Amino acid sequence: MKGCKYGTHRVLEPKGALPQAAWRIDNTTNLYNNEILVDVDTLNIDAASFTQIKKQANGDTGEIAKIMKAIVDSRGKHHNPVTGSGGMFIGTVKAIGPDISDISIKPGDRIASLVSLTLTPLAIQEILEIRQDQDQVSIKGQAILFESGIYAKLPSDMPPALALAVLDVAGAPAQTAKLVKPGDTVLIIGAGGKSGLLCLYEAKKRAGVTGRVLGMGHSQVSHERIAQSGLADNVFSLDATKPLEVYDKVSELTSGRLADVTINCVNIPGTEMASIMTTRDGGTVYFFSMATSFTSAALGAEGIGKDVNMIIGNGYTKGHAEIALSVLRESPVLMKMFLERWAVS
């Protein structure tokens, strides 16, 4: 039996929706001819989603597990109803439908999904470990990849947990590579996190010696990571939910010119206006953060008469997995930082 390549045959509620937009999907493991069944061992939860879940659970590991299990049991996927975001997984291919044309994978291969958990049928039998500092959860479970789904074989030159952490945010550095031109002034908001550090590297690489990169964090730890990377020409710490303070600082650092490109990697809501105000008219704001309210961004820009190009943080662009992994291969400093911070397994 062959299903829709986009997975609509799995949608239970509401009928006619695509899997991502659906409230509930079928997560049974009866395989359609154009699906891939994967034994999942690790989930990498989207930063905005995991931050919200941890806050709801008051940091209690048992409560976090209950909330996650309840989401999956009720929706058939890990689609946080508060943030609307999910994450991705790594696992071992168990079975491949006969109509799957990709001959590069076979049962037993280790892969990482490059599509969101918000559209991926997922069944969790048991949550084994929650690593709050890494936004990663070890489980026993199964997932389904549709014919249209994208994935990557896990690289052999880095630990699986590290590859998962990088691939989860692969869209951010790849989009940065496309957006930044030689000579640009680039502001990275949330530059001390996974996506922010990778974006710093690509921004510095693409802006070149005539460009300038501003790295903004919030906590002291974030500030130290940005400084340690050596990738920002200016490092500063401010609250991204206070747009006037951020605007004043960026205006000071750029002599009033502001940023040509602003990349928002923050995992909390309310940072839209800091991104918009610090970007020059005609410049570009890339909202990678899934905590972004695009209504707030659109109406906020209109409200202050700001003419900027605003890009939704599409987690996919051609070659994004290769670009993200190559950043660590090219940067020993970032490789060391990521191994120490995100490669716990």
Question: Short summary of the structure?
Answer:
With 345 residues, this protein is α/β, with parallel strands linked by helices. The chain has helices spanning 47-56, 61-75, 160-167, 171-179, 194-207, 220-229, 243-253, 272-277, 294-303, 320-330, 332-342; strands at residues 11-13, 24-25, 36-45, 87-96, 110-113, 122-131, 136-145, 151-153, 185-189, 212-217, 234-237, 259-264, 279-287, 309-312.
Layout of secondary structure:
Layout: E1 11-13, E2 24-25, E3 36-45, H1 47-56, H2 61-75, E4 87-96, E5 110-113, E6 122-131, E7 136-145, E8 151-153, H3 160-167, H4 171-179, E9 185-189, H5 194-207, E10 212-217, H6 220-229, E11 234-237, H7 243-253, E12 259-264, H8 272-277, E13 279-287, H9 294-303, E14 309-312, H10 320-330, H11 332-342
Parallel strand pairs: 9-10, 9-12, 10-11, 12-13, 13-14
Antiparallel strand pairs: 1-2, 3-4, 3-7, 4-5, 5-8, 6-7
Helix pairs in contact: 4-5, 4-10, 10-11
What does this structure look like?
The chain has eleven helices and 14 strands. The protein is an alpha/beta fold and 345 residues long.
Mean pLDDT: 94
Per DSSP E runs of 2 or more residues, the count of β-strands stands at: 14
Major sheet attributes: 6 strands, antiparallel
Q: In percent, how helical is the residue content?
A: 25-40%
Please give the count of helices.
Answer: 11
Order of helices and strands: EEEHHEEEEEHHEHEHEHEHEHEHH
Give the DSSP E fraction (strand runs of 2 or more residues): 15-25%
Structural class: alpha/beta
Q: How would you sum up the global shape?
A: globular
Return Rg in Å: 20 Å
Q: Widest sheet: strand order?
A: 6-7-3-4-5-8
Unreliable sequence segments:
none
Give the CA-CA distance, first to last residue. Answer: 38 Å
